[in-house]
Amino acid sequence: MSVSDPIADMLTVIRNGCHAKLKRVEVPASRMKTEILKVLLRERFISNYKYIEDGKQGKLRIYLRYTDDERPVITGIKRVSTPGLRRYADARKIPRVQGGLGIAIISTSRGVITDKEARKLGVGGEVICKVW
To answer: Are residues 84 and 60 in the same domain?
Structure first.
């Protein structure tokens, strides 16, 4: 795993786990990753996640969600803002994902929230990723 962008690494692990039809995947834990997973759980893109203490930084076990006919709920997940090029969106210019079928996860002054919540609150912030 690369050290420069741990969030992108987590998104790649989730994407690869969905393509491989795995029930769960594990990533190193961090506070930002936990906040992103809270949003994914609230929006029902994953079935659950759990913090596992390992004596170091800990791990996050992510339980992936599938439809009744075994297709992954997450069909696409993409990092938008990177450490080398941060992407910010004003409250009036928050991107829509797949015409409103997906979500953009945004780090705002009110916490890590979805694009819909940010529009409702009238706040902008860093666009972390898009999920559909």
So the answer is: no
Q: Are residues 59 and 12 in the same domain?
A: yes
Q: Which domain holds residue 102?
A: 77-131
Specify the pTM.
Answer: 0.95
The CA angle 26-128-104, to the nearest 5 degrees, is: 100
- Residue 127 pLDDT: 98
User: DSSP labels for 68-116?
Assistant: TTS-BS---EEE-S-SSS--EE-GGGPPPSGGGTSEEEEEETTEEEEHH
Residue 69 lies in a domain: no
Nearest by Cα to 4 from 60, 57, 79: 79
